[in-house]
Amino acid sequence: MISDKPSLEKPTPRKKPKQLKDYFDFRNNQVNQIGLILFSAFIISTSIHFFFEERFTEKQWQTQPMTRHKIVDDLIDSRVLLNKSKPNVIKRLGQPSYILTKDIILYELGLAPQFNSDQVEHLYIEFSNEKVSKVSLTLYDY
What transmembrane ranges does the database entry give (predicted)? Predict the structure, then answer.
């Protein structure tokens, strides 16, 4: 039963909300310290990966064919060849290793570390309407 009389008990004080500076106070707060360490490790590892990743250059592609497997991922991801004409692609990458059809050419990628030596990886370039429509990696049996 609810009475109309005021209660003699003192009201419980409301919890004071945290201020923004309290979230960045790392003294004796192990959860925040672990989070900061993990975040720092992520930033450092991402930076190191970016720094040591091989970048595509036309000169390296043409002069060092045995190391193409190191730079082919950057070539595909940068989408440099898409919508280029066949003569433009040949000018940039040199003569293809294989011409399968009028619209498909392959470039050898060199000797990458592999477990299966029966198949060789190639850069697959497909043309449609005289422009590059698809660039990918493919395994090709001899």
Answer: 34-52
User: Would the pLDDT of 113 be above 70?
Assistant: no
pLDDT at position 118 is 59
Could you tell me the pTM of the whole model?
0.59
Locate the domains of the chain by residue range.
Answer: 24-52, 58-141
pLDDT at 77: 85
Question: Using CA atoms, how far apart are residues 31 and 43, in angstroms rounded to an integer?
Answer: 18
Residue 15 burial (10 A CB sphere; 0-12, 13-18, 19+): exposed
Pick the CATH number of 58-141 from 2.60.40, 3.90.1200, 3.40.1620, 3.30.1450: 3.30.1450
**Cβ proximity of 101 and 61 under 8 Å:** no
